Amino acid sequence: MYDGLSLSRHGIAVMAELDHYTDRTKVYRYADQTGGLHFFREPTGGQQLELSYDPRNPSRASARQPLYGQVVMALVAVVGVGMACGGLGLTGYQLFLALRGGCSPGANGLRETSVA
């Protein structure tokens, strides 16, 4: 994710052409500013793929994502972090209750009854 954000701002954008398929990915080829040929693997994409590469290290590349894709990824990350924090908070609260002595009889609103 960091590469995608960093390279989309500071990298050089190129259109990569589909070169060949492997068993699970498509392999795209692109040329850097000096004409050097590089390859990029991506499971999705069509005949062309827009990439950003690092001018200091042209073999380091990332597929460019539209703004919509970046917003969706950010929302998923925020929801995931929120759920993780909520789960940890509830776990900590339950641990606190258990160590403090837990619920005393009758504290949960139920009456104790004796069986004769």
Automatic annotation (TrEMBL):
Name the UniProt key words of this record, in alphabetical order. Answer: Membrane, Transmembrane, Transmembrane helix
Q: Which spans are transmembrane here?
A: 67-90
Highest taxon of the source?
Bacteria
Q: Does the keyword Transmembrane helix apply?
A: yes
Q: What is this protein called?
A: DUF3592 domain-containing protein
Q: Which organism is it from?
A: Streptomyces clavifer
